[in-house]
Automatic annotation (TrEMBL):
Binding site for Mg(2+) 1: E67, D86, L88, D89, D212
UniProt keywords, alphabetically: Cell inner membrane, Cell membrane, Hydrolase, Magnesium, Membrane, Metal-binding
Domain of life (superkingdom): Bacteria
Binding annotation for Mg(2+) 2: D86, D89, D212
Cofactor: Mg(2+)
NCBIfam families, A to Z: bisphos_cysQ
One GO CC term, this protein: plasma membrane
Designated name of the protein: 3'(2'),5'-bisphosphate nucleotidase CysQ
Keyword Cell membrane: yes
Name of the coding gene: cysQ
Pfam families: Inositol_P
Main location class: membrane
HAMAP family (alphabetical): CysQ
Length: 254
């Protein structure tokens, strides 16, 4: 299976999961909390089940690492090439009734994201990317290429996590830069807004896991952006424990 075929598979399964999530949201759901106190719902489990079934049937040669399986103790051995899946990124946003939650399906090869599909179910949007080949947005108006923008002279539009909006480290980081606007939203949607040229910078100073970032990193890099650790290294994958260091997402020339 080549990259284009793998991206088509990821896109199909992300959209399928998005439909499942919106159906469950429309009829109501219960919320429980995992051992790390993060919320999980029926939508997380149903979406993950659908994605895993599709990936394992179509690409049995590639292991799948998925958030809820890892939370349940079902660990996948590292491999050169593997899928990273977050079936519902932004569960807090989902349970709070906001729109900023995503479905993330990314493929990793030798520690790097090589393609990704990110669905925004409540917006009816799908973002796709293969670094080095291009990035696209698909919605009710069709599919079109996307690219990061050059920051405007009046200053940066910054995306930040709603849950870390009052973090003094964020204020210190932004105080060193010319900022025109700050928008607080949840989930991997922030990567997507940078990728389509609606924002310029997203510093992440809180905890994230690899399934939170793999697919959206592929999209952002494919659109001309970058995802870097604070020491300037490209964010990598397959780390013990699957936890990311803090990182910065940028558009062009930031």
């Amino acid at each position: 299976m080549n990259d284009i075929e793998a991206l088509a598979l990821a896109a199909e399964l992300a959209q399928q999961a998005a439909s499942i999530i919106m159906t469950i949201r429309s009829r109501g759901f219960d919320v429980i909390h995992k051992s790390d106190h993060s919320p999980v719902t029926e939508a997380d489990h149903a979406a993950e089940k659908a994605i895993l079934a599709g990936l394992r049937a179509a690409t049995p040669q590639w292991p799948v690492v998925a958030e809820e399986e890892v939370a349940a103790g079902l660990m996948t051995a590292p491999a050169d090439t593997f899928w990273l899946v977050d079936p519902l990124d932004g569960t807090r946003e989902f349970t709070a009734g906001t729109r900023d939650f995503t479905v993330n399906v990314g493929l990793i090869s030798h520690g790097r994201p090589v393609l990704g599909a990110v669905a925004l179910p409540a917006y009816g949007e799908l973002f796709l990317g293969i670094p080095g080949q291009g990035a696209w947005k698909r919605d009710a108006d069709g599919e079109r290429p996307i690219h990061v923008r050059t920051p405007p002279e009046e200053g940066l539009t910054v995306m930040a996590s709603r849950h870390y909006a009052d973090d003094p480290r964020l204020a210190e980081f932004l105080g060193q830069r010319k900022v025109a606007a700050l928008s607080n939203i949840g989930s991997a949607a922030k990567f997507c807004r940078l990728a389509e040229g609606e924002a310029d910078l997203y510093p992440r100073l809180g905890r994230t896991m690899e399934w939170d970032t793999a697919a959206p990193q592929a999209v952002l890099e494919a659109a001309g952006g970058a995802v870097l650790t604070f020491d300037g290294q490209r964010l990598g994958y397959g780390k013990p424990g699957w936890e990311n260091p803090h990182f910065i997402c940028t558009g062009a020339h930031v």
